[in-house]
Amino acid sequence: MRGYLYLIAIIICLIAFGYWANSERVKERKEKKEKISILESKEQIFQNKQGEWASSVKVWSLKYSELEKANSKNKAIRSDYEQKLSDAYKEIENYKRKNKDLERYISYQFGFKDTIYLPLNKDCFIPPYRSKHLDIDFIYNHPDTIGIVPEYRNNMNTLITLYPKRKANGKKHWPNWGFIFGWEEFSITTSDDPKAKITNQISIKFKK
Description:
The protein is elongated, with a radius of gyration of 27 Å. It is built from 4 helices and 8 strands; from the N terminus they run H-E-E-H-H-E-E-E-E-E-H-E. It is α+β, with helices and mostly antiparallel strands. The strands form 2 sheets. Strands 3, 4, 5, 6, 7 and 8 form a 6-stranded antiparallel sheet that branches. Strand 6 and strand 7 (145-164) form a beta hairpin. It folds into 3 domains: 1-61; 62-93, no CATH class; 97-199, no CATH class.
């Protein structure tokens, strides 16, 4: 009788191990498929009905540990994909948020380029201007005007994160624990140009 019990126990263990191994293979295939989908996804640039330019990208679903892993890798051998994850990791770490508090991260580059023509002083010559965020070129191919071509770029990112709810008067609870008093979502948008001030931010989460 005892031998049958051992045999049944062994069979159960083998079935459980087989189920676990199969689950791991399915999980691994799913993660690989998701990564391929991320690498193959392309940004779509288009104009809406009002002629405003818009950028559309697929939302990535990743563990924070994947960002940490990419950041720990030598920069010289990182792929473009890993570099994006590393950049995201460094930005998020600026706010010292815990993994469990993180909701979403969005990164994008804002920029513009235009040409302005002004009356030209015949003795005027201005050399091109170059900086991290702003380039200015000058066009002298017309005798009466000078063309000014500014090009501005600014890397921006948005972090959606959780903070413990505060009291009605705006002060923190003590202890300041979200799992007791509840959580509030905050959207933090950052510009890498210290001279660019961000205002009028609105963040909306749609109820389902």
